[in-house]
Amino acid sequence: MFGRKNETPSMPRPAANAEPGRLEPPPAPELGALPDSGVGLPAPASDRIGRPAANEEQLKTLIRSEHYAAARQFVFATLNVSAALTRSRDQVRMEIERLIAELALRDRLPITQQEQAQMTAEILNDMFGVGPIEPLLQDETVSDIMVNGPDQVYVERRGRLELTPLKFRDNAHLTNVAQRIAASVGRRVDESSPMVDARLADGSRVNVVLPPLALDGVAMSIRKFSRRDLTLPRLAAQGSMSPAMSRTLQIAAACRLNIIISGGTGSGKTTLLNALSRYIDATERIVTIEDAAELQLQQPHVVRMETRPPNVEGLNAVSQGDLVRNALRMRPDRIILGETRGAEAFDVLQAMNTGHDGSMTTLHANTPRDAVVRLESMVMMANGNLPLYSIRRQIASAVHLIVQVERMRDGARRITSVVEILGMEGDVIITQDLFRFNFDPASYGVEVHGSFDATGLRPAFSDRARYYGFEAQLAEATRV
Questions:
Q1: DSSP per residue, 356-371
Q2: From CA 122, how far away is CA 125, in angstroms rounded?
Q3: Which residues are registered as beta bridge partners of 360?
Q4: How many Cβ atoms sit within 10 Å of the Cβ of residue 223?
Q5: Cα-based distances in Å from 209 to 60, 136, 276
Q6: Contact 372, 419 (CB under 8 A)
Q7: 85-119 burial, b if ≥16 CB within 10 A, otherwise e?
Q8: What CATH number belongs to 232-309+316-477?
Q9: pLDDT tens profile 75-113
């Protein structure tokens, strides 16, 4: 298929207007028909519109893509893919390497051993992984992967977006990868159900939107699960909080405070929730509820539950609210909800008010006060007949602490405030700040500079800290 053509090169012919006895040089071969390649490439030379000619590197890329397409077609035509997927990746690797070497020898493909190994890795990624973006999952500097159609892949590194050179073959290739990810967790994504939340085997969270909702091809967003063991002291060392804030939050988690982590998209809410959960006592029974499971609790007694979308007929969906109500019958010590975003807020507050102290959740809000307002709105979604005063009383009695996190303009995630809910005064919820991040406007630049400052106010949960033996440590951590 890709062998050399055994053609005898023609002798140069005299031009029509050439002098007798003088030979004109032969015409240069067209780039679209390389004499010795055997590969019919599209002619990339400049045309009358003024399109620039392809350079040598582009030609090499085109030739490599042709070789890869041939190798992929040969492997999938020869290999029993269904049987191969039941074996390990290493076992299949050996067989694919043998097949590509056989093809290269048979068709005399001018490919090196290194290129054969790269082809093998790409085919394995198509079969077992997420195609061309598999290397990004192994890159620890990448926190988010955003695919906007087959030809555009962005990543986030250190809070900054970067365009990568990686591409999918076409929209069908990207759709196939997305459907395989969804099927691996028992979900589906197609034209009738064009949106799905799923997860990868390592815990990374995946969101997929298919056409016709996504106008420019499949949109896939992957929030990678960090392999680093992030603890509160380590986050403090990275500059996400101060050591005093870290110590205060450790005490709050150990003292079974009900904590809400508030922040915008990508601000680090789930990372902080995972870090806080490390300070839950190992003897407690914990029930976690998520749309796509990504919490990684270290305690031995953890029951993990995940919502279920409706089936093809639109029936049998299981929501977070359903799981919260069921969790109350499972004798939990703590209930941890991955994210509160709707009517389940009413059930979460009920759980916090019925002996399940130490429960935690996250929600999207820009400030702690906005978080309280969002909670009020979400409870009204569940029970519109409930008076606002009663809702506020429930929030004031259920929630102890709101931790606000923010991804700042320099890409760094920081805790901007730790706010305590004190109770009600009239029909107003009273709060007090324990810590604030105060940025320094005098040192304006690419990086945000500032300080994490304690307000010096005595925490209202000091009595609870005394009950658990942490009063002196709490007073030291919150001292100015």
A1: -TT-EEEEE-SSHHHH
A2: 5
A3: 259, 336
A4: 21
A5: 34, 20, 32
A6: no
A7: eeeeeeebbebbbebbeebbeeeebebeeebbeeb
A8: 3.40.50.300
A9: 777 877 777 767 777 788 888 888 888 888 887 878 788
d(CA 34, CA 107) in angstroms, rounded, equals: 17
The residue type found at 155 is: V
- CA distance linking residue 218 with residue 199, whole number of Å: 17
Q: What are the CA-CA distances from residue 350 to residues 86, 87, 336, 406 (Å)?
A: 46, 48, 13, 28
Residues 434-450 have pLDDT tens digits of 999 999 888 787 889 99
Alpha carbon 116 to chain centroid, angstroms: 31
Query: How many angstroms separate the CA atoms of 96 and 88, rounded?
Result: 13
pTM: 0.76
End-to-end CA distance of the chain: 77
Domain spans, the chain? 1-7+23-128, 131-223, 232-309+316-477
Q: pLDDT digit string (tens) for 43-56?
A: 444 343 444 444 56
The yes-or-no verdict on residue 151 having pLDDT over 60 is: yes
Domain topology for 131-223: Beta-Lactamase (3.30.450)
Which element (helix H / strand E) includes 85?
none
Q: What six digits make up the tokens of 124?
A: 């394995």
Q: Residues 146, 221: contact at Cβ < 8 Å?
A: yes
Q: Which DSSP state fits 222?
A: E
- Structure token digits, residue 229: 């063991």
What stretches of 364-470 show up as alpha helix (H) in DSSP? 368-382, 388-398, 462-467
* Spatial separation of the C-alpha atoms in residues 351 and 353, rounded to whole Å: 5
**DSSP 8-state symbol, 441:** G
